[in-house]
């Protein structure tokens, strides 16, 4: 890959940002990259980043596909809370909270309810034709109320070893939540990139009307995408709840929709729909989680994290904005003036 | 809104025709439905509780929601141009924090209040420039502003700061008597003034007409030679100003600054505007409708308080349900016209 192609790649800025964050961490805390094995489990800052970033990444994968169809899903935080509330209330209500059977039932019911919520979002967007931001705003507003209704306003604390495994267990030394995130990421990547599904999703995002006339069943695609988003939100909700061993309808997944959207945007997927990059989303989620970790290691008060998030979003948006790109393009053309060959090459790579 | 009431002298059938066409027009329909809804909600409250339909209860609706009215006015401007502002709740919290911390360190109220309004307007200006110059979606630009404002709140202080400044305390406690047991606060007067100014600006000024024109079609507005760029930035300045003012009114209400106040208020403001009949795609809507929307939300809250046994989270479910009904209604009304 030559320099100019690397420069214009959508992954260029996010990766640079991640590397910068890694270097800051390494300077502040020399043991940043060290990994060690304690009691057969992997430990280290990088493992922490992966583990804490897993819920955001899982939701961001669903969000990427939604955004690729020119949509947005604001309800994921509320779905997280509902899934956690449902699972915890089932476990608490059963005579044997510690048995694997109970936990399996709780998880399956929570996921099924999430599927119904996703179908509802998809129905509003695809069948009634309501703007996605508003259609999902309804569930975002009402969903937390519903979660409070399920928990009856209490924080449900569960003591169930099998349930705890989802959020804080280890498989072969690797945290279970990371394994789940990898499975979902890989499944989404294979399903959309090894089949035509990804192409169809992009075509709906670029021009819904044209793709409909070309025979793409946009309605079914949209419903599928929103259902998948709710499904992944529910999985993230289960991980969060299990990690805290408690369902807190008010705070589980609060603001996680914003983190997920940020991850997608930092990853270079345009909110205007169309081309998307799951790899970019992965990098974006890592950037966000590393940023949070950096704030801790550098010694800035953690409460200031949101200011840094605001700075990162603004910087990435400004760098990716068409106005900045055009300015960059003009600048590089003025450098290459007098050499016709390079000029055409630049123009091709800019467009 | 005047069509169905002022044209009474025509024959009954024509009146009926006019009323029904007003109800089904995308411009007036949602507002009229909201008005009917507000009356219905009041009737329900009045039939269930003694003393519900009384002067003090109605006036308290304004007292409790003065800040939300101001927020909804700013949001109406933004949504009329087809944009959205997610930062209003965080900016409101930020202005309560600035007020509380500056007053605590001995600044006078006559400096603090203008300073807050200038700062929040500048924040709005930056957001507007990001949206217009850098072509960043309003959703993301205001999301960044929301993070920034919330983060700055935490940077100022994690804890709640109480306000003891005499000017703020007297503004908070003075009740303007309207005779009998009825009284309002200074906040209500300010909020109603904001509504009046917004109404005049939207309907009787060039700026207002340009706002509607951008919502109807930005390209056409530009071709007509309207100052689209300036107006698009200006609506975010207006929304920032309104958020700052709402923050000041909120401190009159609570006499404290706290970084976690008004989490989710942006949703209430958007819900009030939508329930008040402003089309989310822009172009149609009224400030007075948004006020009606705030009153509907406030009345539901009051009913839930009167009920006592219903928990407060039912409010959110009701708001969600109402949003759905009104969005579907908008969809049906605009689809029929096409």
UniProtKB/TrEMBL annotation, chain A:
Asked whether the UniProt record includes Nucleotide-binding among its keywords, one would answer no
- Which InterPro entries does this entry report, sorted A to Z? ABC_transp_permease (IPR001851)
Q: Name one GO cellular component term.
A: plasma membrane
Q: Does the keyword Nuclease apply?
A: no
Q: Where in the cell is it found?
A: Cell membrane
Q: What does the record give under GO molecular function? A: transmembrane transporter activity
Q: Which CDD domains match?
A: TM_PBP1_transp_AraH_like
In the bilayer, the protein is annotated as: Multi-pass membrane protein
| TM helices/strands, residue ranges | 12-33, 53-69, 76-94, 100-120, 127-150, 170-191, 221-240, 252-271, 278-300, 306-328
- Which Pfam families does the annotation name? BPD_transp_2
Q: Which UniProt keywords apply?
A: Cell membrane, Membrane, Transmembrane, Transmembrane helix
Q: Which PANTHER family match?
A: ABC TRANSPORTER PERMEASE PROTEIN YPHD-RELATED-RELATED, GALACTOFURANOSE TRANSPORTER PERMEASE PROTEIN YTFT
Identify this protein by name. ABC transporter permease
Can you name the source organism?
A: Cryobacterium zhongshanensis
UniProtKB/TrEMBL annotation, chain B:
Q: Which keywords, in A-to-Z order, does the entry hold?
A: Cell membrane, Membrane, Transmembrane, Transmembrane helix
Q: Which CDD domains match?
A: TM_PBP1_transp_AraH_like
State which residue ranges cross the membrane: 28-45, 57-80, 86-104, 111-133, 178-202, 233-255, 267-293, 313-333
Pfam families, A to Z = BPD_transp_2
Q: Which GO terms describe its cellular component?
A: plasma membrane
Q: Name the principal localization, coarsely classed.
A: membrane
Give the UniProt subcellular location, in the record's own words: Cell membrane
| Its membrane topology | Multi-pass membrane protein
Query: What Gene Ontology molecular function terms does this protein carry?
Result: transmembrane transporter activity
**NCBIfam families referenced in this protein's UniProt entry, alphabetically:** PRK11618.1
Name the UniProt record assigns to this protein: Sugar ABC transporter permease YjfF
